[in-house]
UniProtKB/TrEMBL annotation:
InterPro entries: AAA+_ATPase (IPR003593), ABC_transporter-like_ATP-bd (IPR003439), ABC_transporter_ATP-binding (IPR050763), P-loop_NTPase (IPR027417)
Keyword terms: Antibiotic resistance, ATP-binding, Nucleotide-binding, Transport
Matches recorded under Gene3D superfamilies: P-loop containing nucleotide triphosphate hydrolases
Topology in the lipid bilayer: Peripheral membrane protein
Domain ABC transporter: 4-227
GO molecular function: ATP binding
Protein name: ABC transporter ATP-binding protein
PANTHER family found in the cross-reference section: ABC TRANSPORTER ATP-BINDING PROTEIN
Subcellular location: Cell membrane
Length: 293
């Protein structure tokens, strides 16, 4: 059974084509990352999935129904990028209120526990840190025990520790066969938490596969250094290297294993100056992938 089906879906804002001809189905029970750079069309796609944004063309179905119907039936929970919490209320009050709007909500204590809020349930929501606020948003998203959970950059305001515990809660929640679709800018986050990664850039799907397949396509990082007029032959044979770009005096190697690449680079005997190692720049990687095609 498909949890989600986009069929020929496009959305334009005036002359801006935010999403173009999206054809994607997502199986119930899977955890899928929607990965892409700023402005790729992730939030627009999520908005259409929730019935908040109307497609210019095409059709969206959630468990075989329109997004509006699926949302009304309490089948979908969402955690969006913004949305203020009612100030003055405690965490427990906010979560209880949201629970009361659903036909078959999860028990209150279970929600608080899953969202790691039990200890701060009595605190006012306007006195929370960024990470704690995100946890309340998560609690609100799961309050109705939805079959599909949609998260738009859920860990944006969190530090490393909060991210880790957030994803642990998520795995707990999804254990009973629920479906998760989340948007992220980070390949590592997609890799660690999804079983399928759909990459979008400029409103189109440019890659779709397991995290392993996606990493092999884009590399997980870039190793850059000043090569000057030294020979470039052999750089593409260094371990992990996937693409070599020479721009003036700068050599940029896209690699699946930056550590191994750097070690081997030093062993070549080349004079390496201005070394920089960075995480994958998806925008760059995908713009060049789509151009190469
Ligand atoms: N309400 C709107 N009016 C006009 N243009 C919009 C609107 N919403 C989005 N866009 C444009 O549509 C494109 C896709 O935006 P969208 O927010 O879906 O991307 P995104 O992948 O979610 O980006 P981010 O990671 O920055 O949130 C962008 O060019 C954006 O400027």
């Amino acid at each position: 059974m498909n949890a989600i089906a986009f069929t020929g879906v496009s959305k334009s804002y005036g002359t801006v084509r935010a999403v173009e001809a999206l054809d994607v189905t997502i199986d119930a029970g899977s955890t899928v990352a929607l990965l892409g750079p700023n402005g790729a069309g992730k939030s627009t796609s999520i908005g259409m999935l929730l019935g908040l944004v109307r497609p210019t063309a095409g059709e969206v179905r959630v468990f075989g129904e329109t997004p509006d119907t699926a949302v009304k039936r309490g089948q979908v929970g969402a955690m969006l990028q913004d949305g203020a919490l009612v100030p003055g209320l405690t965490v427990r009050e906010v979560v209880s209120f949201v629970r009361s709007m659903y036909p078959e909500p999860m028990p209150l204590e279970r929600i608080l526990e899953l969202a790691n809020l039990t200890d701060i349930a009595g605190r006012r929501v306007d006195r929370l840190s960024g990470g704690q606020t995100q946890r309340v948003r998560f609690a609100i998203a799961i309050a109705g025990a939805p079959r599909l959970l949609v998260l738009d950059e859920p860990t944006a305001a969190m530090d490393v520790e909060s991210r880790r515990s957030f994803w642990a809660s998520m795995r707990d929640y999804v254990n009973g066969g629920r479906t998760i679709l989340f948007a992220t800018h980070y390949l590592e986050e997609a890799d660690e938490n999804a079983d399928r990664v759909i990459v979008i850039a400029r409103g189109r799907v440019v890659a779709d596969g397991t995290p392993r397949q996606i990493k092999a396509m884009v590399g997980t990082g870039t190793v850059q250094f000043t090569i000057g007029d030294q020979p470039t032959a052999g750089l593409d044979a260094l371990p992990g290297v996937h693409t070599v770009d020479i721009r003036g005096p700068i050599a940029q190697l896209r690699t699946t294993d930056p550590d191994a690449t750097v070690q081997a680079l030093y062993a070549t005997g080349l004079r390496v100056t201005g070394l920089e190692v960075k995480g994958a720049d998806l925008e760059d990687a995908f713009v060049s992938l789509t151009r190469d095609r």
